[in-house]
Design goal:
Trna Endonuclease, Chain: A, domain 1; 16% helix; six-stranded antiparallel β-sheet; OB fold (Dihydrolipoamide Acetyltransferase, E2P); 2 domains; alpha+beta; six-stranded mixed β-sheet
């Protein structure tokens, strides 16, 4: 995903009210920008950190600038715009980067499905080698980096995330493919685990989901002010239960 024009940099003053952040510009002035992340942004909201933001030419927006990237411990970069995750995964699928998801002739987004009034991020259909078998993909953005390369999801209690796991289990039980795709927008993460201490229910449900046939995968993004793209698969390690 090319970013044109390139992102501009500032320093984080604070993130607040979930969807707002104040930043200090290189000339010393400050401004408020939109923060497109519903999570806690744990370890990604340290005041004084260098951040990068984009600018929209939409004149109706109250806050035309959008918080995109933050520099975290160890000079790593984290992409906090969760709206980018689906674009990154779609790009990787279209370019046949993810072998496990290649070969489908049709891809749809935001399709209603399941028993709990949900929408799936991607629905892949019409695979010559798997006639009649569809592939449902739920995407989650991972930005919580810990020591030694550990990445965790979620960064706050996520009842919605647990609901999506239940929906994926139902899909797998019907005989279709169900995939949980961790889009790792953090350059310091080497592997992903469920955040058991933050949301034990999600962690336990993820273990149950994998046993029920849900496929779990993670891909890491290359991040810069000019481009963000998925580049490599990472291990996903689940607790033994």
């Amino acid at each position: 995903m090319k970013i044109d024009p390139p992102l501009q940099s500032a320093r984080l003053i604070k993130r607040y009210k979930r969807f707002l952040a104040d930043v200090k510009l290189p000339d010393g002035t400050s401004m408020t920008i939109h923060c497109p992340n519903t999570g806690s942004m744990k370890n990604c909201n340290e005041p004084g950190s260098r951040v990068w933001y984009s600018t929209s030419d939409n004149k109706t927006r109250k806050y035309p600038h959008t918080f995109e990237i933050i520099e975290v411990a160890g000079n790593k970069l984290a992409g906090i715009n969760t709206g980018r995750a689906n674009h990154l995964v779609r790009e990787a699928i279209d370019e046949n980067m993810v072998a496990a998801l290649s070969g489908y002739n049709s891809i749809r987004q935001e399709v209603k499905y399941g028993k709990e009034n949900s929408r799936i991020d991607f629905l892949l259909e019409d695979h010559p080698g798997q006639p009649g078998k569809m592939c449902y993909i739920e995407v989650k953005n991972v930005t919580l980096g810990m020591e030694k390369g550990l990445g965790l999801f979620p960064d706050a209690v996520s009842t919605r995330g647990t609901k999506h796991l239940r929906e994926l289990m139902h899909i797998a039980g019907q005989g279709d493919r169900a995939v949980l795709f961790f889009c790792v927008q953090h350059t310091g993460i080497e592997w992903v685990e469920p955040a058991s201490d933050i949301d034990p229910t999600y962690s336990a449900t993820l273990v149950e989901a994998q046993k029920a046939g849900v496929e779990v995968m993670a891909w890491q993004a290359h991040i810069s002010e000019k481009e963000i793209r998925l580049v490599r698969e990472l291990p996903v390690i689940l607790p033994q239960q």
